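re: ur question from earlier - yeah i can do the single chain one, its not a big deal. heres the input i used so u can compare w yours
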Amino acid sequence: MPLILSISGGMFLLLVGTPVAIVLLAVPIAYLTMDPQVPMIIVAQRMVASIDSFPLMAVPFFVLVGQVMNSGGITDRIFKFANCAVGHVQGGLGHVNIVASLLMSGMSGSAVADVSGLGQVEIRAMVKQGYDRPFAAAITAASATIGPIIPPSIPLVIFGAITGTSILQLLLAGLIPGLMMGLALMVVTRWIARRRNYPIQHRQSWREVGKAFIEAFPALMTPVILVGGILLGVFTPTEAATVAAIYSIVIAMFVYRAMTLRGLYKVFVESSMIVGAIMLVIGAAAVLSWLFTWLNIPQTLAASLQNSVSETWMLLILVNLFLLFVGCFLEANAALIFTAPLLFPMMEQSGIDPVHFGVILVMNLMLGLITPPIGMNMFIVTAIAKITVPEFVKAIWPFGLILVVVLLMITFIPQLSLFIPSLAFR
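and the output i got, formated as tokens:
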């Protein structure tokens, strides 16, 4: 009864707009108040223990990379190069939007950094060229979900830190799924563009493309340096985040000369605020996860599901439906910390590869970023494009549908995510 009351209270707080971190903390605190079998100090201890992790040190540095890119002229150059490369295709700026997200995802590892940085440039350019605002917002939000799949990925780093799964294998596992998401979105964009007769830009000359590539080259080298350095053993995935942060600052300040010391200080302050919010959510979600584990809820859930579901494919469908549902109501990082400890033991007992499950989990939660009622990307792009949530929902469904198709392919064809890690770890 105390647990039911605590969860009911938490749901009420969530529905009235209480910050997610407060809701996640309120449930265990209310439970321990009604049933004080454990001292309340366990809440503080679990919060501190959850963020006292070496792999999680990558998170603030990847956040810093995203902020530097948005403030240091890197985002604009990536968009310009993508525009020169694919802007001449039917619905060109839609494709530019997707390609720019693919390029930026190799640097920031964050969907929110992508949509809040590139999104402003992309939506403004698309509206100016005659694209309707809901379509511009929808493709921007959908393409930004690629960021946390292709390495470096903040959610995959967090998943690896929580479950003890190899972060390097997780990062490599996201390459093919991320590219598949990009290609799928381009197919839908082309279909919609032809139906609505969206404008076609003139083809850029090879000289213009080359010039844009040279300008963007320092930024485009970031994923090459990161992935190459990790595979060659020069640095760990956690250390790679530091390398990426230093490299992006050098590019912004000394190559593009688009950032001053004052601007860098502002970026540090903004990044600190974002990281503080993320770590608070991680700590709060860890307390709730501990409570569920202490009450044997994951074990009970795993046993009941395994007794009622005999086939692995049925289990995967149920897990996907559950994750999609959770992603609709919880912020992505909070949902990740909440669901990973809950489902990971069950996946292991069912013989599902931990790396494969990590990609499935993160892809599900990324879809939650573009769905009501809590989708972060949804709220950001509706604010940028100045449209309503119903307008966005009407425009996003073709992109959401094709991303679900990709998710099902990744779910039931494990080699799509495990092929590259298997090559690197023969």
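The radius of gyration is 21 Å. not sure if urs matches, ping me
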